[in-house]
Amino acid sequence: MPVYNKLVRDLIPQIIEAGGNTCSIRVLKQGEHIEEIKAKMQEEALEFLEAASPKEAIEELADILELVHTAIQMYDVSYEQLEQIRTEKQRQRGGFSKGIYLIEVGAEAELI
């Protein structure tokens, strides 16, 4: 039996059992859960990086967004509050839509 030791979507155990297989699971405590969300976010970001098609990339972005929704629930923050923070950061520092790639900054400046 393969060992995964990773956070999976809530219905995965039922899907595995519906396929005629067995699995063992445990429910994570809150501190463990947020750490596993962070690890899963890295995994999904890497899969987004490696996506070979726009469809695959969008699938990975959907997984990342699901993890964001779960994380903000755990931090007791609404999506609207998160969006307000995002909007304020965008107003103060801009977004990422222009594709600006910083090469170098003189020693006297600290922007980042």
Automatic annotation (TrEMBL):
Q: Which CDD domains match?
A: NTP-PPase_COG4997 (cd11532)
Organism of derivation = Lysinibacillus xylanilyticus
Q: Which Gene3D superfamilies match?
A: MazG-like
Entry-linked Pfam families: PRA-PH
Taxonomically, which superkingdom? Bacteria
Q: What is this protein called?
A: Nucleoside triphosphate pyrophosphohydrolase
Q: Which residues cross the membrane?
A: none
Q: Which residues form a coiled coil?
A: none
